Amino acid sequence: MTQRFLKLAAYVVAVAALLAGAAVSAQTIDDRVRDIARQLMCPVCEGQTVAESSSELAEQMRAVIREQLEGGQHPEQILDYFVGRYGESILAAPPKRGLNLLVWIGPFAVLLGGVGLAVRTLRRWTHPPLPGDAG
Amino acid sequence: MRWQKTAVFFAVVSVLAVLGLAAARERPPWSTPLVGHPAPDFTLTLFDGGRLRLSELRGKVVVMNFWASWCTACRQESPVLEWTWQTYRSRGLVLVGVNIWDRRSDALRMMAEFGKTYPNGPDPQGRILQEFGVTGVPETFFIDRRGRIERKHLGPVTRDLVVRVVEPLLTAAEP
Amino acid sequence: MSDLGAFAIRASLVVALYAIAAALIGARLRDERFLTSGRRGVLAAAAFLTLASVALIWSLVAADFSILYVAQNTSLATPLFYRISGFWGNMDGSLLLWAWVLSAYSAIVVLTNRSRNAILMPYVITVLMGVLAFFLVLLTTAADPFTRLQVPPPDGGGLNPLLEDPGMFFHPPTLYLGYVALTVPFAFAVAALLTGHLGPEWITSTRRWALVAWYFMGLGLVIGGWWAYHVLGWGGYWGWDPVENSVLMPWLVVTAYIHSVMVQERRGMLKVWNLALIILAFGLSIFGTFLTRSGVVSSVHSFARSSIGPVFVAFLMAAMLSAFALLLARMGRLQEAHHLESALSREGAFLFNNVALVAAAAAVFFGTTFPMLSEAVRGVRMLVGPPYYNQVFVPIALLVLLLMGVGTSIPWVEETLPRLGRHLALAATLAGAGGVVLLVFGVRKPAALSSFILVMFVAVVTLAEFARGTRGRRRIGESVPRAVYSLLRVNPQRYGGYVVHVGGLMMVVGIAASSGLSRQIDTTLAPGEEVRIGRYMLSLQGVLPYRDSTRIGIAVQLTVSNAGQVLGVLQAGKVVHVASQQPLNLVGIRSTPRDDLYVILAGVAPRKVRLQVLLNPLVFWIWTGMGVITLGTLIAVLPELRRTRRPVVNPAAERS
């Protein structure tokens, strides 16, 4: 049993190491630019973020992001910069306030509601009313 | 139990109805938060070597036009722009052309073709266009004498539009 | 030819309406002749639509430009292969394809149910032909693919160049094969509600249909992703495009459904859930068609836009209102008293599985529809992109993954917490150990790390199931390979399902790695210059003109090497599709099981080129995983092989 356990463990560790071969170590400036660029939608493309788009505007925006990061700006300031000029629609996800909370909370409300429903169903099944009880 | 399900069900129906109504509405163009605010300052190096700084144009009415040589609407509006420059420059209007997403040779060729005499310069890194939230060509900004963006127009301008927007700006008192 | 096609569509509509009448009269009067006639009507509708479809394909291949649709979707320059895909190039043909597939499926349903489900069949026919009639009415009015042009043009507009690609040849029809298959279980569900026959028959008769729908929708999504990755060329395979989302939503619900029906088949429970799930899935599939065809969402599929959207909303609302009203009406009969021994059981796990998958579908629904809602209420169109889905969808999906592991291990009927703990201990320990190893090696992003840990957990649990099963068979003398084979044949639904799970795990690994751990570099190179990404060194050889049968442009040649050793050459380009003048990306990809080296040519300047270079880990496993899922699905649809020789298993050990 222990031997089998060890064999399995070795196998899993090997798989994990293989996966880890693709890992990222430290965050380079490219990575940080990309992280911010991923939060902005490219205004001239269909459904692509600034990180993904190869359009000239997206490239220019990434250059501005890079310049501002090197200048010490924080990600929130850089996002605000673009929102100030392009409007809220440039954000790749709605800021968590106001009407937008609907989209952030909605699915979790469905999840919690569903869990509640499931719990109630399970309780009913494991403790069915005896015959003669009010239905 | 039953009414809860009916309630959820009708909630879904209303969502669908809202979506259906949303479908019927026309999609507004990309909104811009800059209208009504001071125009961002910038320095433009012109094709002929000169330099133009927006803040130095305070006191004049500035019309900024973003364009590219491969854009058919830009070609369409070029005569209107040149006419605007010739008609209103004596009254204190400056027309500035910013060439974006383009090649210098193509831009110069188009300028020669349409006889553009007003100041034109390239924005190769796109810094100016990003400051103005530009998403396409042509886009035209009308800036009043106090440096405030009065209006942004997407697409080619017409003489009619220019007259309607520019006249009030020109007659407004100097700061 | 167009007259033949137009006639065939109208004939099919007449016959479909007749079939509805005949089936209903036959059911009412209990007259076998009417029922048979109704069944024949279904077959006739399929025959007519086949005729119409062949007529359209013929016209496309022959480039008959007197037909408007042909003129819009093909040209003399279009290669033969892609003339056929002009069929689904635009809305009219797509609707005809939908109708054709539906009629064919209806015919199969009729032929396979000649001696079964006698009570349900008239109503099944009614629903199937009713949905078909809706599409046929559209095809004869607003969307007639055989509309003629007074003056045929000398050449056609040509196919959308994005569709001139093998991936795009298969993407729409595959999706339709899946989408449309949902109509069958839906029809049976409505028939069951109408007749009050709410027992297991409607579920067991449609189990394979649900699997077919599930598989082909999934395959269609993966083909779309493969195509986006290789052809659209932005470096990714999934962009949460609203139209693709509209297939993902019903797919998630059907995933819940195919698991949940097992509980009804075994214990007669979750009847209401199953009915609600299939009605919801069908509704989402119609909603998806609405999303694609209307203008309410911005999408790469914008060529599919038309004014027909509101019609679909109306149909959708009518269908959903009636179906749910029926469900509510029958609620009393469905809410039988059940007795479940323990909430901690596979039944319980599947119930939570339903909840989690529906919540995941809700996440996609909210994200897809919020821009419209925001615009309608505030006038500002807030966009919902990857950051939202990463924060909302991914956690719920991870929950589903966890349930996959727990549900595989937990037995039916009853389990105690200590026993479950012992069963999962090994898997949890190994997964935890693996997670620590990954952390040490630098995988820090929480979504990626949690995904890997959960994948390891589920993998060990699933392998343990196979181990347990083969151990039982080995006792009767079967070798390991033979034992595995026997498992798959004797209990195909279960073990085929496990194979599908393994394929799914591979896909999750690929998706998690390529989303969370990929790297990108924007660089400008002159010929001879190099750039390093990861272990690869890319060296620019030169810029060349590019030309093939339909496109021209420029391409760059790059040499790929690793530690000095040259591995190969990559080509990336920017081209224009000559006929349509549409610009396209030619992406250079070097794929290994470990990662994909991915190069996009962003622009060319005098003596320099701008490149986007990406290193995407483990993408290979996404496509491979789909292959394994295919294998597992095939196994699961096979009929069980009943054997006389059954292994003698210790009853105490046999827990499920």
Protein architecture, described:
The complex is a heterotrimer of chains A (135), B (175) and C (656). Chain A is mainly α. Chain A contains 5 helices and no strands. Chain A folds into 2 domains: 92 residues, Orthogonal Bundle (Helicase, Ruva Protein, domain 3); 40 residues. In chain A, helix 2 crosses helix 3. The termini of chain A are far apart. The mean pLDDT of chain A is 82. The longest helix of chain B is centred in the first third of the chain and has 23 residues. In chain B, the strands form 2 sheets. A 5-stranded mixed β-sheet of chain B has the order 5-4-3-6-7, covered by helices on one side. A two-stranded antiparallel sheet of chain B has the order 1-2. Chain B is built from 5 helices and 7 strands; from the N terminus they run αβββαβαβαββα. Chain C contains 19 helices and 9 strands. In chain C, the strands form 2 sheets. A 5-stranded antiparallel β-sheet of chain C has the order 2-3-4-5-6. In chain C, helix 5 packs antiparallel against helix 6. Chains in contact: A-B, A-C, B-C. The interface between A and C is large, with 63 and 85 residues.
Chain-wise SSE layout:
The complex is a heterotrimer of chains A (135), B (175) and C (656).
Chain A: H1 2-20, H2 29-37, H3 56-70, H4 75-86, H5 101-126
Helix pairs in contact in A: 2-3
Chain B: H1 2-24, E1 43-45, E2 51-53, E3 61-67, H2 72-88, E4 93-99, H3 104-114, E5 120-122, H4 127-131, E6 139-143, E7 149-154, H5 159-171
Chain C: H1 2-29, H2 32-61, H3 68-73, H4 80-85, H5 91-112, H6 121-140, H7 166-181, H8 183-195, H9 201-232, H10 242-267, H11 271-293, H12 309-334, H13 346-378, H14 386-409, H15 417-440, H16 446-474, H17 480-490, H18 492-516, E1 519-525, E2 530-533, E3 536-547, E4 551-562, E5 565-577, E6 582-586, E7 588-591, E8 595-605, E9 608-617, H19 620-637
Antiparallel strand pairs in C: 1-9, 2-3, 3-4, 4-5, 5-6, 7-8, 8-9
Helix pairs in contact in C: 1-2, 1-6, 2-5, 5-6, 5-7, 6-8, 7-9, 8-9, 8-11, 9-10, 9-19, 10-11, 10-13, 11-12, 13-14, 14-16, 15-16, 16-17, 16-18, 17-18, 18-19
